[in-house]
Amino acid sequence: TPVVGVLALQGDVREHQRVLAALGAGTVPVRTADELDRVDALVLPGGESTTMWRLTRSFGLLEPLRRRVAAGMPAFGSCAGMIMLADQLEGGVTGQETVGGMDIVVRRNAFGRQVDSFESDLDFPALADGPPLHAVFIRAPWVEKVGSDVEILARVATDRADSATAGGPDAGRIVAVRHGALLATSFHPELTADARVHALFLDIVKEA
Ligand code: GLN
Fold it and tell me: Can you provide one Gene Ontology molecular function annotated for this UniProt record (predicted)?
């Protein structure tokens, strides 16, 4: 069985490990370049991406992460993790670097002006059969632009009943994407009971 690391510098590391373990995957925290060498795939958790970026720099992990991702290691980023996997950022701290690898432009704290945090049900056709995915957004980014090889997996429903701005600027925004072996969500599948997004990631890991 593949070993899935969880980047463990900052963020909701244990929540991801709990879901991965429940699905039968081997999982270890990753804090050093040596630990990164030993995993087959990596989850970048939700948290705070400016802190995560600064810590990857000071732990000497940013370049090793870039090399592994460029070499095809499957990776899944939720929220701050999505920000870390984006090739380009809009908004937020000037000069903030990313691991990159996904041909997407991500806007940090994108939903923040309407509502800092919300929950919403998403259509997510790439997931195994079941109800719409209940998604938790916490000061979430959205994907502003995607390159031609990026698959859009989910958008915020245009008729979100819970939206502060139904039919407004957040409706239809891209919140889940896949680019090759890289997967990213604006929301936190590690915080809800539904394990289908992690299961999708483990399928990607097995394919790779
Ligand atoms: N707002 C955070 C950031 O920009 C991400 C929030 C999250 O991961 N829940 O890093």
Answer: glutaminase activity
pLDDT at site 170:
78
Q: Give me the residue spans of the domains in the chain.
A: 3-207
Superfamily for the 3-207 domain: Class I glutamine amidotransferase (GATase) domain (3.40.50.880)
* 87: enclosing H helix or E strand: strand 86-90
Indicate the residue type of 200: L
Q: How far apart are CA 45 and CA 42, in angstroms?
A: 10
Q: Please give the Cα distance from 146 to 105 (Å, whole number).
A: 7
The number of beta carbons lying within 10 Å of the beta carbon of residue 120 is 19
Which residues have a Cβ under 8 Å from the Cβ of 181 and sit 6 or more positions away? 72, 73, 74, 75, 204, 205, 207, 208
The CA 140 to ligand 1 mean position distance, Å, reads 6
Q: Is 48 annotated as a binding residue?
A: yes
- The residue-averaged pLDDT of 113-122 equals 77
Q: Which residues line ligand 1 (CB under 6 A)?
A: 46-49, 79-80, 83, 92, 108-109, 138-139
Which ipTM was obtained for this model?
A: 0.95
Active site residues per annotation: 79, 188, 190
What is the spatial distance between Cα 156 and Cα 174, in angstroms, rounded to a whole number?
7
Top mutation candidate among 85, 138, 144, 186 for ligand 1, by most atoms within 8 Å of CB: 138
37 CA from centroid of ligand 1 (Å): 26
